[in-house]
Amino acid sequence: MSKIVLLTGATGFLGGYLCAELLAQTDATVHCLVRGRTDEGARRRLAAYLAHRGIPRADLARVATVRADLRAPRLGLDDATHERLARTAGAIYHCGATVNLAADYERLASCNVEGTRAVTELAARAEVTLHHISSAGVFIDAPHVGHPEVDEDTVLEPGMPGEVGYTRTKFDGEEIVRASGVPAVIYRPAFITGDHATGESSASDLITRAIRASAVLGVAPDCATAMPTAPVDYVARGIVALSTRPAAVGRTFHLTQPEHLSMAEIFARLRARGYAPGSQPVTDWHATLQDRVAETSAFTMLALWRMGRYLLAETPRDQVPVVRSERTRAELSRLGVTCPVADTAYLDRIMGYLAASGLLAR
């Protein structure tokens, strides 16, 4: 691998893990494009996050900060910096995005669509491979257009990302990458869950929000949904392992666990810790959530409202598609990367992390 790679999204949940894996699996210097009012502000923001990730000090010497903004034309870079990055980069990992499941498409497009366009243009200028981190969410409404199952070779069709702004922007981002002609690899993580070893989870992802809301309300939704998921550490390790293989260029990979994760089992582990002892039918739970919005925050309510029919499906019609990943997992297995099992012990580690972090309230 080239001595210099560019990474967007390094201060995000997955992006921080990606940075750590790039440092662990390669000898590259990782130039992280980070938002900030000043160069020093961007550097401090990245340093604080990577220190939290526990990256060894020796490896941190191979991290450089480039102040940039995915929402701005040409990534907010001046001509000299843009040219320098195009001249020196050996690969680009585009993980940066605004992940807001409550926002409309228009609010997200500047970052998730136009930002992807700008990153793709930089990859074209640099004549390097673009490793584009998309989302399995591009298929969230696939059953409604005749695809109850999808795999790495399923062709994207209009209607598949549904009406959620975030999934629509990820759909459009993929279309931009494919249409550009840039050598690219597309990675589609499923719903990203906590670190398999520690349980560390994003406070703002959809499943965590459902857990936190249920803890506040004292009741969990009674649903039989199963969601495609993958631990964040597995996703990051898998992306970097695959990206080091030249044969990956032009392909799409699904980073998911072999079996979808039961939401009922998640709520059972929450209940085992003494939270949300009651349960309600999904419709009643949504009504309770809206009645007590001041306690659960408007954003939580909106995020669950927009995505709730997928996460907490009441009917088979609302089930997400089966996201298959056999080919990706087989290739990763050959590379020594195995997807860990989402067993009871793992779910308990997630609940333990959320409780210890003060993210669960009774």
Automatic annotation (TrEMBL):
Q: Which NCBIfam families match?
A: Thioester-redct
> Could you read off the lineage of the organism from its UniProt record?
Bacteria, Bacillati, Actinomycetota, Actinomycetes, Micromonosporales
Asked if Metal-binding is a keyword of the record, the answer is no
How is this protein named in the record? Thioester reductase-like protein
Identify the species of origin.
Answer: Longispora fulva
Which UniProt keywords are listed?
Phosphopantetheine, Phosphoprotein
Per UniProt, residues of the Thioester reductase (TE) domain are 7-239
Say which domain of life the source belongs to. Bacteria
